[in-house]
Predict the 3D structure of the following.
Amino acid sequence: MAIQDRYHRQRLVEGLGDAGQLALSETTIAIVGLGALGCLTASMLARAGVGSLILIDRDIVELTNVQRQLLYTEEDAAKHLPKALAAKHHLESINSDINVTAQVVDLTHVNAERLLEEADIIVDGLDHFTTRYILNDVAVKHKKPYLFAGVIASQGNVMSIVPEKPTPCLRCVFPEPPPSGAQDTCDTAGVLAPAIGIAASCQAMDALKCATDHIEKITNTLLTFDLWNVKSSRLDLGSPHSECPCCSHHHYEFLNQTHDVEPTTMCGTLTVQLPCQEAFDIESAFERLSEHGSFTHHMTVVRGALNEELGDHGEPITLTCFEDGRVLVHGTDDIGRAKSICTRFIGI
Ligand SMILES: [Zn+2]
């Protein structure tokens, strides 16, 4: 009779067993984006005993996240903790046997291959499209499974890209990212936590299949569902498309971009992200900013409001500065103004 260790109920499942459990313990999974989807999938994978998790997220915990981002607490939001660090802390308290690393960075074409180098499987917890095409390029180029999912309001899409199988890739199905601002996001259309549950469960299940060498159980399909209106369908995607620039012609256009990482507006949140030129001396940034407003320095993040600058809606401009050199300017979506504020108050 099998030992009743913490994984006993999982090892009992036909197809997983002791061999599957051992395989899980030797697997490294990167979760890119620790929002609602990433939190739930990461929690399931940590509990399942996946040996190493790499958590990649650029953002901090806000109180509006706690409704659906199941790893975070009110305290995390009050402390403005980076999501990757808060998630690491909670996952380690769920399973102290696994190895969890946190990367508080914006995944871009510049750093994607380095950040994902150790990962056997890539889980998509993102809420915006452009970065997904970078993940898809990395996955196809390095033959790593990429588990795509997206949820808005009560609707979701789930598709597993397994180059080894092969399945169609993201670009076979959606050849180009939608123009920025053309799609609803969680910030504009909202999101209901139960819809996240379906998508995260599908992702976590396919991660278990990939990790335990059961890719034959993964289908070439796109699952779409709408829990509010109680509808779902599975679209058969067939084979990879012979015209696909990524998986058929191996042109990794999103990964091979040559321009610098550009400032971006974060849709629906009146926030501009200025990319890092180089890492900050976060302590001196804190001292400098404290002369112009009320700022806190917690772990690797400095955050606070400026006294002398009002945002587009008349509220004080708030800055969040990360150790890697990135700055989030909250209160405006004017990139030029955000740059000018950072130059004046932080000297970058
Ligand atoms: Zn393709």
